[in-house]
Amino acid sequence: MTSQELRVSKIERGTVIDHIPGGQALNVLAILGIDGREGDVVSIGMNVPSDRLGRKDVVKVEDRELSQSEVDVLSLIAPEASINIIKNFDVVEKHRVERPERVSGVLQCSNHNCITTEGEPVDSEFEVLDDGIRCVYCDTIIRDDITAHILA
Ligand SMILES: [Zn+2]
Q1: Residue 114 marked as a ligand binder
Q2: CATH class for domain 3-96?
Q3: Is 49 annotated as belonging to a binding site?
Q4: Which residue ranges does the record assign to the Aspartate carbamoyltransferase regulatory subunit C-terminal domain (predicted)?
Q5: Was domain 102-149 assigned CATH 3.60.21.10?
Q6: pLDDT in tens, 23-52
């Protein structure tokens, strides 16, 4: 088996997230809530040579599809990413992520007085700006290090 085959070793069922900017794979895992403690079977390729991106990361998660809110947040850190749904070792669905107008859930507002962070049963919701995201409840803007705001 060549190293190329190793990199693209197939999974029977699940999701392959391709064209992640090099170095962002661990943040993608954080978005998916994968911390290694539970049973998710995950393969990661880091800094794989890529024609389009120079170098890219690839994440494969077995027996799992992504929710729309996970894909929405993913698009913020990996705008070029493609999502491949795998069944029976075949790609049955493939699409690029799209930058959404809003993202809900998954991310936490950085304002500790925000209604979404005070233990109220209110899901966070952010408007997506060109250079960040804005909480629709308290107008707090998060520009840097969006992945630091992923809900645990
Ligand atoms: Zn807020």
Answers
A1: yes
A2: alpha beta
A3: no
A4: 102-145
A5: no
A6: 999 999 999 989 888 788 999 999 999 988
